[in-house]
């Protein structure tokens, strides 16, 4: 069915993309506004994919005329968040990389950040006596801007501005049966520093259940069981200074009146217990042989010995680059790695080891060497709308991503132009890619997920989950976080806040207690408590932790990722002491003690569910000997046991006393770490609270 999907929720002024599902590029699709708020003068385009930008709060109903009938799409627009004027600036003293002297000679400066979706060319700074300035208006939150000079990232500078104000509220739905009634309750939680929110219930336009069949009283909804259709989807939003992302219940009613209720936005149960191992494919085999699926398969016993549950491969499809993200064929494996059959053999071998396989799905862009992009730029009519084209936003034309009719791209990624999701042919193309690989693997890590429309991801989720409810979707929504990708889209989310906090601690710029602030950021962004976050110290896009912070704090940083809620991720070679970001795996000369340390962390986390339970409670501690800023302690508990984790990021061992009695036996080293003065902590100690 071509119905565009669940109701959409946005703020006034925010653009919502609306598109038919199961697109047929040659079919006739037409949109029209059926109902808008009285004060709205909004209009729609005439293409098969339209962008609704509400200009007044209220409910908008849009109709899609499609080959299979007319479908209604509801868009609920809430008042826009209050914005304030902000001023970003950068000088030569703020240069992060490159020669500061080059800033003085720069002719132009482009600025990008979350506020403009990291799009190159949409915002330009003006120069004022050696200071480059961009002024704009932004809502509450912490906003970062990057300044790139003369179209290059060498040099570049950053600035950060924080606007005080409440974050997003959160909401969670629950349900129970009371006699012949279904009762749905909404637990709406205020944002940090926010007011108590109201609750709105909404119904899915694809279902026959509507408001006339239910009774709503504040945060509770009641419906007679015999009035429920076979399938009902109930959505709810918390509304205060901002609106929350929606939570959803899916209700199936059987012929005998039985009800089956599920939470379609939640991650598979296995995900929260998993440990991920990322493999940068072409450096994993090492220097003794060329990387291939066959050679990787020979190394499965090593990965199995680590105890991990999931492997994530960087792209394995055709690409002219070693990292694989500049893709020229999305439908077949790279010739240098092996055949499709050899890839299947590798996946089967991992499955025999009880390890799931995650495929790196790249559908935001292709290589500019992809035949489709070449046809597009050469004027072949069939490919005219396959890629974004960006009109000139500035007089600057001396860089290849600026000027009239330039390719759409992010940052300075001139070799990977963005595909155009306003094209039904592109949506069909990328959905075919999803279906091509969904049968082969156990999940997707979705590259540049923030660059792809929400409506597309909602369709992807329903497709893959209908085929396999255990299928995993991991988003790359860095360098910024956006809880909207949790709304019936992704199961597991990157946590860059935690990553950057570990960096700041490791460099000695912040005390170890900032870990608590980083964990609290998830609430500020509006992620519900059920959201699952991936914790990591490095990946293929970031420098090695030991390179940034030195070898001493690495163990404590890794220990943090394994002892707070979420999914820990090990980047290949992290456990072997590989020093380069994408360096060759150290097989024969690796750090065996560090490898064993990672193995013990995986084992202890697996054997103690308290380390996988929600919630982190700070513990009072005193550093008797050592670096006070380098130590942090917290409690992790479930119904069976209570554990205390103590981390020491400093190079020197610390002696620490706690405000509660513990056994003193470290579960990681399986030794007693008590001394006459307290606990001796080299890097990570996990010990039980004494009964």
Question: What this model shows, in words?
Answer:
It is built from 13 helices and 42 strands. It is of the alpha+beta class and 691 residues long. Strands 22-23-26-29-30-31-32-33 form an eight-stranded parallel β-barrel. α7 runs parallel beside α8 and α12 runs parallel beside α13. It is globular, with a radius of gyration of 26 Å. The termini are far apart. The relative contact order is 0.08.
Could you give a short description of this structure?
With 691 residues, this protein is an alpha+beta fold. The protein contains 13 helices and 42 strands.
Structural class: alpha+beta
Extended strand count: 42
Helix fraction by DSSP (H/I, runs of at least 4): 10-25%
How much of the polypeptide forms β-strand, as a percent range? 25-35%
What would the average pLDDT be, to the nearest integer? 94
Going across the major beta sheet, what is the strand order? 22-23-26-29-30-31-32-33
How many H/I helical runs? 13
Low-confidence stretches: none
Q: What oligomeric arrangement do these chains adopt?
A: single chain
What is the CA-CA span between the terminal residues?
Answer: 59 Å
Shape: globular
Largest sheet entry: 8 strands, parallel, barrel
What does the radius of gyration come to? 26 Å
């Amino acid at each position: 069915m071509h119905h565009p999907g669940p109701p959409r929720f946005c703020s006034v002024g925010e653009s919502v993309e609306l598109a038919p599902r199961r697109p047929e590029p040659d079919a006739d699709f037409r949109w029209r506004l059926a109902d808008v708020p009285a004060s709205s003068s909004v209009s729609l385009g005439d293409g098969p994919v339209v962008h609704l930008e509400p200009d007044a709060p209220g409910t908008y109903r849009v109709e899609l005329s499609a080959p299979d009938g007319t479908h209604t799409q509801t868009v609920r627009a809430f008042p826009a968040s209050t914005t304030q004027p902000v001023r970003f600036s950068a000088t030569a003293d703020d240069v992060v990389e490159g020669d500061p002297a080059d800033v003085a000679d720069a002719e132009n400066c482009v600025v990008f950040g979350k506020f403009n979706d990291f799009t190159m060319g949409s915002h330009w700074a003006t120069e004022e006596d050696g200071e480059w300035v961009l002024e704009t208006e932004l809502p509450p939150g912490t906003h970062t801007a990057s300044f790139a000079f003369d179209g290059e990232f060498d040099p570049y500078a950053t600035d950060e501005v924080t606007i005080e104000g409440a974050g997003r509220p959160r909401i969670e739905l629950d349900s129970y049966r009371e006699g012949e009634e279904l009762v749905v309750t909404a637990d709406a939680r205020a944002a940090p520093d926010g007011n108590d929110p109201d609750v709105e219930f909404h119904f899915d336009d694809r279902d026959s259940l509507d408001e006339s069949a239910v009774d709503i009283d504040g945060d509770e909804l009641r419906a007679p069981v015999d009035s429920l259709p076979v399938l009902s989807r109930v959505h709810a939003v918390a509304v205060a200074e901002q609106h929350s992302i929606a939570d959803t219940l899916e209700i199936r009613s059987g012929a005998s009146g039985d009800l089956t209720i599920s939470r379609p936005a939640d991650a598979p149960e296995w995900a929260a217990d998993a440990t991920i191992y990322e493999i940068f494919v072409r450096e994993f085999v090492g220097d003794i042989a060329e990387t291939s699926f066959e050679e990787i398969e020979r190394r499965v016993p090593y990965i199995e010995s680590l105890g991990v549950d999931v492997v994530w491969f960087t792209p394995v499809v055709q690409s002219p680059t070693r990292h694989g993200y500049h893709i020229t064929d999305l439908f077949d494996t790279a010739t240098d790695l092996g055949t499709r059959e050899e890839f299947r053999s590798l996946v089967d071998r991992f499955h025999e080891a009880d390890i799931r396989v995650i495929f790196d799905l790249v559908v935001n862009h292709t290589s500019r060497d992809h035949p489709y992009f070449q046809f597009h730029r050469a004027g072949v009519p069939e490919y005219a709308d396959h890629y974004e084209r960006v009109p000139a936003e500035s007089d600057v034309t001396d860089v290849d991503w600026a000027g009239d009719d330039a390719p759409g791209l992010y940052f300075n990624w001139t070799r990977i132009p963005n595909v155009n999701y306003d094209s039904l042919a592109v949506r069909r193309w990328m959905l075919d890619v999803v279906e091509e690989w969904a049968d082969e693997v156990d999940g997707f890590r979705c590259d540049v997920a923030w660059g792809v429309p929400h409506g597309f991801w909602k369709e992807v989720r329903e497709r893959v989950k209908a085929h396999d409810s255990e299928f995993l979707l991991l988003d790359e929504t860095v360098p910024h976080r956006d809880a909207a990708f949790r709304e019936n889209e992704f199961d597991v989310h990157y946590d860059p806040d935690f990553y950057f906090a570990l960096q700041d601690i490791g460099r000695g710029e912040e005390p170890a207690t900032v870990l608590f602030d980083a964990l609290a950021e998830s609430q500020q962004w509006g992620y519900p408590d059920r959201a699952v976050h991936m914790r990591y110290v490095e990946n293929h896009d970031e420098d090695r932790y030991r390179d940034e912070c030195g070898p001493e704090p690495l163990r404590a940083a890794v220990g943090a990722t394994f002892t707070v809620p979420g999914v820990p991720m090990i980047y290949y070679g992290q456990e072997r002491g590989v020093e380069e970001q994408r360096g060759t795996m150290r097989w024969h000369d690796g750090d065996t003690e560090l490898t064993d340390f990672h193995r013990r962390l995986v084992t202890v986390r697996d054997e103690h569910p308290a380390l996988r339970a929600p919630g982190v409670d700070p513990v009072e501690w005193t550093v008797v000997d050592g670096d006070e800023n380098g130590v942090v302690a917290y409690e992790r508990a479930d119904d069976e046991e209570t554990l205390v984790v103590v981390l020491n990021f400093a190079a020197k061992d610390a002696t620490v006393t706690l405000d509660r009695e513990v056994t003193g036996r470290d579960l990681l080293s399986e030794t007693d770490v008590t001394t006459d003065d307290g606990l001796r902590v080299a890097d990570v100690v996990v010990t039980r609270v004494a009964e």
